[in-house]
Amino acid sequence: MADIVAAAGMSKTTLYARFASKEDLFRALMAQLAEQRFPPIPSLIEDHPDTPLDEVLREFAERSFAAALTPDWKLFDRFIISEGARFPKLIRDSVGWRHEVIAMMAEYIKFCANRDGIACRDPGSVARVYLMALRGFIAEANSAGRSVSAKERREVASQTVRLLMVNRGDW
To answer: pLDDT tens digits, residue range 1-57?
Structure first.
């Protein structure tokens, strides 16, 4: 906490007035980075009521990759993995947040299926597969410490969406 106080140019009293513990500070940081990482899903429905699902999924993937493959997120991703045993609530919050994103994406997939007149028996599973595919790419790149070009992000986003959409009739 001393390093954080020094870097922020504030007193420990000020820091602890806002964050009661290191865990609370890390949770707030995780929430801020998560907001940057994933675009707001409710606005997808409002902003793209007539846009084809594959276009929105591709845009969502590209924006997510661009945010999650930043140096700040890479460091934070590594922190969550390395310090999870010391801060179990942080891990639980991270998993809980992912479940919220899956639920919101499932709602959007169901919205598009209804709009397009296509049956969708399990939008939650479709959303989970899609988001975990994105997470897998992010985790691989971040754990390897490699840079990912904008071109590669676009290609992976397109491939992921194509693989998902080719089976849309079986959802």
So the answer is: 677 778 778 888 888 888 888 778 877 877 776 666 555 655 667 777 889 999 999
- In whole angstroms, give the CA distance from residue 170 to residue 163: 12
Phi, psi of 48, rounded to the nearest 5 degrees = -135, 50
| CA geometry: angle 125, 137, 99, nearest 5 deg | 35
Q: Which two tokens stand for residue 122?
A: 């399990």
Q: How many residues does the chain have?
A: 171
Torsion of CA 159, 163, 165, 166, to 10 degrees: 120
* 159: helix, strand or coil: helix
Q: Which residue has the tokens 């429905």?
A: 45
Question: Taking Cα atoms as reference points, which of 62, 61, 106, 98 lies closest to residue 80?
Answer: 98
Helices (H), 38-149: 41-47, 53-68, 71-83, 88-116, 123-144
Kindly state the percentage of the chain with pLDDT values over 90.
Answer: 34
